[in-house]
């Protein structure tokens, strides 16, 4: 499978898993705790977007031609803050109405985002000599942990 096809497969899986979680949980009223988790994820995502201009941002793990390495804001601590944001938001969805299916789909989403992160990092190492140094200073997805 080509590199771009693999990237598009990962993005497709990501959105399929998110859609399944959202459909599985329907339009019921979430608990305050679930809503808080979801909103924290949204807030973190907005904070992240503030530091990464849209022209630099890519939905696939492929690196844009003129992309620059961002090391400010959330990127100072983790290399993939948008993936972290998605995971926190979807955790809020899962917590709102936990089922075996939702935990299974959430686990598949985690695996998909880790594969996307790994692919993106491999491409960044080819694209930028400073990325290896950046990797040593930051965690992959979860601040201060992983």
Description:
Helices cover 64% and strands 0% of the residues. Helix 2 runs antiparallel to helix 3 and helix 3 (81-96) packs antiparallel against helix 4 (100-127). By secondary structure, it is mainly alpha-helical. It has helices at residues 3-25, 32-51, 81-96, 100-127, 131-137. The protein contains 5 helices and no strands. The protein has a domain at 1-26 and 50-57 and 68-99 and 115-146. Pfam families: PEMT (PF04191). This is Steroid 5-alpha reductase C-terminal domain-containing protein. It comes from Sulfurospirillum diekertiae.
Structure summary:
By secondary structure, the chain is mostly helical.
Low-confidence stretches: none
- Give the topology string: H per helix, E per strand: HHHHH
Derived from helix and strand composition plus strand pairing, the structural class reads: mainly alpha
Q: What is the strand content?
A: under 5%
